[in-house]
Amino acid sequence: MSDLRELYQEVIFDHNRKPRNFRKLDPADRLAEGFNPLCGDQITVYVKFDQGVISDVSFEGSGCAISTASASLMTEALKGKTEAEARALFENFHSAVTNHGCAKCDDLGKLEVLTGVAEYPSRVKCATLAWHTFTAALDQKDQPVTTE
Amino acid sequence: MSQVNALQRPPYRFDAEKWRADFPILRRQVNGRPLVYLDNAATSQKPQVVIDAESNYYSQTNSNIHRGVHRLSELATNQYEAARGKVRRFINAASDREIIFVRGTTEAINLVAQSYGAQNIKAGDEIVISTMEHHSNIVPWQLLCERTGAVLRVVPINDDGEFLFDEYRKLVNERTKVVAVVHVSNALGSINPVKKIIELAHRFGAKVLVDGAQAVPHLTVDVQDLDCDFYAFSSHKIYGPTGIGVLYGKAALLNAMPPYQGGGDMIRQVTFEKSTYNELPYKFEAGTPNIAGVITLGAALDYVSAIGLDAIAAHEHELLEYATAAAAEVPGMRLIGTAHDKASILSFVLDGIHPHDTGTILDHQGVAIRTGHHCAMPLMARFKVPATARASFALYNTRPDVDALFAGIAKVRQMFAK
Lengths: 148, 418
Known about the structure:
The complex is a heterodimer.
Chain A: H1 4-7, H2 10-17, E1 30-36, E2 41-50, E3 53-62, H3 65-78, H4 83-97, H5 124-139, E4 145-146
Parallel strand pairs in A: 1-4
Antiparallel strand pairs in A: 1-2, 2-3
Chain B: H1 12-20, E1 29-30, E2 33-34, E3 36-37, H2 48-61, H3 71-91, E4 99-102, H4 105-120, E5 126-130, H5 139-148, E6 151-155, H6 165-171, E7 176-182, H7 194-203, E8 207-211, H8 223-226, E9 230-234, E10 245-249, H9 251-256, E11 267-270, E12 275-277, H10 291-307, H11 309-328, E13 333-335, E14 345-350, H12 355-364, E15 367-368, E16 370-372, H13 377-382, E17 388-392, H14 399-416
Parallel strand pairs in B: 3-15, 5-6, 5-7, 7-8, 8-9
Antiparallel strand pairs in B: 1-2, 4-10, 9-10, 11-12, 13-14, 14-17, 16-17
Helix pairs in contact in B: 2-10, 3-10, 4-5, 11-14, 12-14
């Protein structure tokens, strides 16, 4: 078993205490709600585009330290990306946190602090809830996404 | 539980250490630490005699029941029916015919909701449950209400997690047909005054189902004294195997109810025109049952009876008091469920820390607890928390287990401190 500090790195505590972009975007070009019924985690992700590039992204909700930090880090990572770049980043991130290894781990940047969850299958959903909700916003799904 | 006075308590350490040795899993390590198992309300561990009973059945007796003429089938049938007798004695039912083997508490409740419900519930009737029900004692009744047009009524609780009897008195009336209530709350530990609840329901002619999943391992249950109409519990929470449970029902009610599932064993005669049904309890046991599970449940009840539920309850109560006192010393720790009458469960939240984080960090210390909504989402909403962390005690837990829990909580708080 890995050291607990590999899961709970200082960056995660920092983003849990002071989540970045923790606000509503009104109006938003896209938004979606996400829900993890097992933990009771709830999140809303808002996205704004400017000429095909994500100009602003934010979130609201409540959850555990992993899910809050992941949402916060996600909003930082997505700004300035095109939709295609954002989807590619999620694919890379998803692969890293589900222990399939990542093709381009160097590209993960600060998101790398979350790869410790790969050792904790029950917590992978916490790290991916914000991302699933973000892609649902891109897809304009009417139904709230759930990680179950 | 609170009526157990200090003088009646057995010398706790000696007995608990002795009982503990009966459970082989408690000798293993988890994450490099000795296992501290405090998730007993989810499922209990199994003593060696229970593990042996299952193994012995498959290595010595395995055969199908109720239909073979050969020796092994007779042996298996005798052991299966002997276990029914053990269950009957354990909850003091009047007759073996009133003991129906099912998959668990959930199936027992669904059986009643579907069979009794289909026959007796119509539009405008009312079904009364409480705020602290497990989803398994909510959803089957909601489904019944959807099918029939009956109305679900919910008895509120107070901030300590106690059933509000005066509110219940206002809710129950001549339209009430079923009261379905939990005996001991899985998320709070509250012990409900089921005898009083039943007595009042009966005055209006309503039938009462008691969800006893969390009660049977911790307190003596006497279904005749309670005068309940149905009582449901699961084997795996009382040191028996998973996948087996019990529905107790009064014979007159069960006799009048239509079958729940059709198949072998539950029939008397089958023609393509019409089938007639077997007598109780077989009418409700279609198909080859979990024979090994039933026989092994019998072994688990023998084990519990040999120790005595009074001794178990006194020991667990002492542990709960010890843990509750320790919780009061932890800044930012709030207990969810502080009922006066309470059994075995310490549900809590830590200020600013999500229960899932608490659970993961405790797991690293070898301490297994449950985190989440405990299949009681309306109850979580009542307390305005998304989830809680829950430690729950069994006969083999000791004060060092509680100490390990609180050492783990200290570590959680330290990691989350600014």
